[in-house]
Amino acid sequence: MAKTSAVNRNARRERMAERDRTKRAALKAIVMDRSSPVEDRFDATLKLAQLPRNGAKVRVRLRCALTGRPRGNYRKFKLSRNMLRELASSGQIPGMVKASW
Prior knowledge:
- This protein is mainly alpha-helical.
- Helices cover about 50% and strands about 5% of the residues.
- The chain has three helices and two strands.
- The longest helix has 29 residues, at about 5-30.
């Protein structure tokens, strides 16, 4: 089980990223628009820098939904490899069977 503080920190980052998503997208669109004046693009860059860093989507870490493990996760299931194997072996994941050939 991962540290509770790490899991809570990541959850806070997810909330902040969702909250700031539209504002960041609008500012990034202004920055990337080459046809707009340089002053407007520079102002948008400064405003983007003023937003909290934890509001960026790249700061969110994919963690296991059950254990909070930060590595070895499958995005499709939001589970770590350990929990995926355990649940699949016990038949908790529909359609997943152990490979044999």
